[in-house]
């Protein structure tokens, strides 16, 4: 995400939610970035021309300014650097690929001071997202660092809000992705929400924790594409989004050791006159044609899902079709270190609208969904019915 990723219902992507960065990596751990030793000085950034000199210092202070259109604010601090944001960063408008901002490094502490990263998404949104219409810079923020990233508001991302590719990162609150403004239609969106593909967080990394954030957008609150040891806890996903997702999973991918805990997924009023609902709650989706991939050891614990218009819980191996002919090339299974693969622990409550599906599981075969799936911690209500196909689910209350 962060599909989103973005929050003003992915129009106002207010990344006010605290993105809990991945836990600080040990000094001797090599992450995505090469090791970089800095000087004991303070570097100040008031424009992109200041970046190179500031990157020599272990303390970096970023003031508020406008990043020129068509340029990426790329920051590569020294190992262990302390980075603070003291004003709003606004990104100039231009139809180009992006990203708008990128940070790379090891054991970095980034404190946004509650300030905005403003992508000016309202100037781009046309209801077609990042795969159609005008070219939109995507993502607004790419985090390829280890350490902690916190106290930032991502507002009105043109496409995805935050893409995480670094390891050992904790993104913590308060962080907010707020492109909620994207919920309303505009003159270019043909009556549809103007914001699309405004994922809050897209994760393709290991050892990542995201906690205490609020995402109000028009796509996935969280989308995990690959990675191990990923925790998403105590976050709020609201708006007309697509909830918390693993996938879609393509070929040659491993997702292992995912904990989704203490989150709230719900619709939210965009104004006093209209109430919007989340389309999906909790999803695992794999491409029907994908091969050589594994999704394992996924735990849902004490989540509250409500106001869902399509699927409360959806595990589907037929993407991009929904509940179509499923493939069998992705194995959703239990590893030797866990007794069950996809489990619901504690108390997870899922309630959906009368026309929605509370729970749907569409596995290609009993060999593509394996292990022991203990769903005793799931209580689902509402909807037109639930179907579990080719999955070893036990203990469910549907």
Could you please describe the fold and organization of this structure?
With 398 residues, the chain is mostly beta strands. The protein is built from 1 helix and 33 strands. It has one helix spanning 51-54, and strands at 16-22, 39-45, 57-62, 65-67, 73-75, 82-85, 89-91, 101-111, 116-118, 141-150, 153-155, 162-164, 169-178, 201-204, 208-217, 222-233, 236-239, 244-249, 254-261, 264-266, 268-269, 275-276, 278-287, 293-301, 304-319, 330-333, 342-345, 348-352, 357-362, 373-374, 378-381, 387-389, 393-394. The strands form 3 sheets. The protein has a 29-stranded mixed beta sheet that branches. Strands 21-22 form a two-stranded antiparallel ribbon. Strand 21 (268-269) and strand 22 form a beta hairpin. It is globular, with a radius of gyration of 20 Å. The relative contact order is 0.14. Residues 180-191 have a biased composition (Low complexity). Residues 1-21 form the signal peptide.
